[in-house]
Amino acid sequence: MNTVGPETALAFSGRFRFIFSASGQYGTCVRMADEEQILEKWTFTAGRSQHCAVPDVAASSATHALPLDDGRILLLDSAGSNSSRKHLLTLLRPGEGESHKESIGTIPCRLGGYLLPSPSAAQLGFLVALDSGHSTIWRISTSPPSIEFATRVPGLLDGGTWLDDDGNVLAVNQTCGRYRPNGVAVDLTEDSWRIIWSRSVTSTDRILLSNPWSKTIIVTTTATGEQRLGWASVGDRTVHFPEALYHPGYERRALALDDRGERLLVHEVTGTVSRLFIYSLAEDRLVPLPCPPGKISAPASWVGDHVRFRFSAPTQPPTLATVQLAGVPRWSVSRDHDVQDHRTTPGVELVQLQGRAGTVEAIVYGGARWRACEHLVVALHGGPLSAWRFGFEPLFHCLSAADIAVVAPNYRGSTGYGDEHRRAVIGHWGGPDLDDVLDLGSDLEKDRARHQLPRPVVLGVSYGAFLALLAACDKPQFWSACVALAPFLSGPRFYASASFAVQRRIEQLGGLRRIEDAAGPRDALQACTKLSAPLLLMHGVRDETIPVTQSRMLRQRLLALGKTEEVDFEYVEADSTHGELLQRKDLSLRVARFCRTRSELDSNHKIGNLISRLPHRAPSHFIGKWKK
Question: Is 9 left (phi over 0), alpha (psi -120 to 50) or beta?
């Protein structure tokens, strides 16, 4: 067994945990550079974005930073791994050479916590601490900076938006036990709370945004079977779900309200790319906002005529984009000049491939001649209801740098292609999606055999790793190797070891239903008896979504079948969570080396087979050519 520890971790360039100050003048994020994670401070003036590293701050994936409107930063981070799971709250004043740090105190947050900006200068901000069965809200006072208990609310809270200008009434989402989330209003002055948004006990109902000036709140519900986006006015029992905000089979998300609460920035993914719209509440009108191809994600800030949000593209690591709305909308993207320029990456394009029931869109790394590349990986995304997006994928860049072409298909079950395409795998895990993958694999294997190229490697992440294992076991002749990154073995086996929240998601998506057909049960632990392709099995020991025990069971099964570790398969446990697994450069390099090595061995195997079929009296110089 291989164990990779954090001391060998090298991170890709990227950014996460963006947050904006209450006025939108400042922002913070954690930036992943080559060898460290850095806290960044952003300043927005006159339509320009400037950013710099905050000195003397050790950031991590658990760091929560809240920028204040005076330029200071509140920092919430773990105070250690003791049983109380306390988090330390620090006030930073970034300087030229070093940051002035002032410790405010520690708060018990057994399940984590997060910071909320204050709508008023009367306090620095608020802290939501999560514990078993309840959440606690703390007020962070100004003079002197200190933590004050505000209220305790049953259940786990998430989100948070203010219903007033004074920081007295907070709208937040509450999940109690096995019930689904609903929206509650927490009155911090009266130490009370009440449900203000709930359609039914079986629907997921959330409050996303609010504007105290217009008394507008933006909500979502799944009461109709799929998520709908709507709005209401505080105190009015009528909730509007405009048809203009509804696109069947395509989820629309609310990103930001303007200063007056009259216009809403709406995000939708169509195929692999993001689209933006501006919705006018009074006119009930949705207007497209032109944007370059890429991936847009929350959070967003809308101040005056400037909208800002997280943006990435295949050649652009995650950063902030700004759209100036006055007149003709103008885009600008903040770039980094001190990191690798990914614009030299071999062409990234969208192609249409043939699946079992029709065409399947795929993102391809490798240029127009990707089919002729010596080495090829077929990458399967997680989910099942997910998709590859036209954003920055560090693993794909690592593979591309090793001269490996990548084809990333959005087979049935992928989102962004309508309701029929998305719902095909609900209750049919490893059904229509696996059919599409096998048809793609068959076409690629035949095409590469004609051109005497190695067979493709099938690679999967999370749910995609489950599919990759099934594909490699069901049709071993299609693949030169298989890479399974944080896989589960089957829906029922996954359910037995998953957390309650994940179990509920498995139930919703029909993961417990068994498929009965000639291909047999969709269970990698049973199917692996037919596995002949070399396997790289990698999992994070701190994976909170798919427990590492899933991969450990498969490793033990392979050993029991007589497979030899480091010969027939490689097994790696990494000190990472589910989300961190693909963010570490050392792990991606390990994947790239495996794919290239196994592809080269497959090429030699094909040449050897061809030589063995030549006439026995073939000239030695001819055979030598093939060996070369």
Answer: beta
Task: State the Cα–Cα distance between residues 296 and 291, nearest whole angstrom.
Answer: 10
Q: What is the pLDDT of residue 627?
A: 30
DSSP letter for 86, please: E
Phi-psi region of 248 (alpha: psi -120 to 50; beta: other; left: phi over 0): beta
Q: Are 184 and 221 in contact (CB under 8 A)?
A: no
Residue tagged 């295949």 (tokens)? 314
Q: Are 74 and 28 in contact (CB under 8 A)?
A: no
Closest-CA residue to 463 (of 390, 535, 386, 397): 386
Contact assessment for residue 537 and residue 489, using Cβ atoms and an 8 Å cutoff:
no
CA dihedral for 502, 504, 510, 513, sign (positive or negative): positive
Integer Cα distance of 391 and 394 in angstroms = 10
| Confidence category of residue 580, pLDDT binned at 50, 70, 90 | confident
The burial of 267, by beta-carbon neighbours within 10 Å (0-12 exposed, 13-18 middle, 19 or more buried), is given as buried
Q: Average the pLDDT over 531-560 and give the result.
A: 96
pLDDT in tens, 288-306: 999 999 999 999 999 999 9
Q: Two tokens at 133?
A: 């069965």
CB atoms within 10 A of CB 436: 26
Mean pLDDT of the chain: 88
